[in-house]
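Let's practice the habit of predicting before peeking. Look at the sequence and jot down your guess about where helices and strands might fall. Then scroll down.
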Amino acid sequence: MGSGEWRRGIGDWGAESGEVMRVLMVTGEYPPMQGGVGAYSAALAQALHALGVQVSVLTDRRAKPAPGKSAPGASATGSATGLPVSPTYPQTYPQIDRWGWGSLGKIADCAHSVGADWIHVQYQTAAFRMHPAINFGPLYWRRRGLRVAWTYHDLLVPYLFPKAGARLRRWVTERPAFSADVTIVTNGQDRRQLAGRIVNLAEIPIGSNIHGVEISAAERRALRTGWGYNDGDLLLAYFGFLNRSKGGMTLVETLDRLVTQGRNAHLLMIGERVGASDPTNFAYLQEVEARITELGLTERVKWTGRLTDGEVAASLNAVDVLVMPYSDGASLRRGTLMAGLANGCAIVTTAPQTPLPDFQDDRDWLAVPPNDAEATAQAVLRIADDPLLAATLRANARQRSRLYGWEGIAARHLALYGFATGLADPDCL
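Done guessing? Here is the structure:
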């Protein structure tokens, strides 16, 4: 259904309640904190707002804007989604000091105070500081008369507490799916894990948190010159935080193989090195940095540090090959991959563990086996040595990304809210 139909659906809601639909989004990270779940939450809130939903955000105290800074969405321009937002939207409550058992009551109280029709949790366990309390929230909130939607940004089993075995950790991770009114996953692999065991399960892929842009040849050359690169340099890039699932070691060893083969290759690491949520990522970063030093590649690896969304988009447009060697395969839950597609990158990534019907190897990206630096290097060279292939991959990446626009993502969410309140058709699941 189109977004216009769901605007009428909101009108039906208003006829019953006398007001628009209200959603309290709960997320363990939110801008200005660095993290993909936080950036996604901000983009989804703005897109839902464009469809007439009133969204409030309850989050960690660390998301409190610095003095003199506005909260996300406070400006009518510069949105990561490219959508207009009101000067005071969304209303953000950075109020949670600890995501322990006491936070459940605070979340319910906030939902009642803003008149929320839904609590919608954006879940990735590290963002809630590895505490299991949030996983038992849906049952508690529903007992207090609240509807609950739950989005899994992944179903990876966390290290919750020292003596818990894998079976218990998986049980805790999946618990919300059995008590929420609606459960959303972002990829087919996670859907298969839960399918047949719970009701009201939907798959909604994420969009790019970085708005797609195009830059001129002159702008591209100026950026590369500013970074210290020459026209003949082979510039690889990686975007996002480092952690063990993202293939940082493979990335570094790919660069080493290219240099060993006589290519004047360089690696640009776009964005912050690690995010705000998972402290284990810092240890992995140190391992990657040590490997860079060991291979003598320090002068060939540049870290940009934190950039604005616009600077990230321009940077993605200026590189030769974006290398995203996820150890668990390419997936539509990866916002960094979606950003590369939206900005027309020639991408080398790892073969998906589960089929992605909208994407084809050699058309939209080049796929290689995980943890295989030699295959990754050879794929990079295919792009570097074939301008037609590079141009085709870039054009097709932009085209594919249009399938995952935020207006459509928001409309799917609105359909699910309506389904669980009797305003929508079961086909939305």
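How did you do? The first helix runs from residue 3 to 17.
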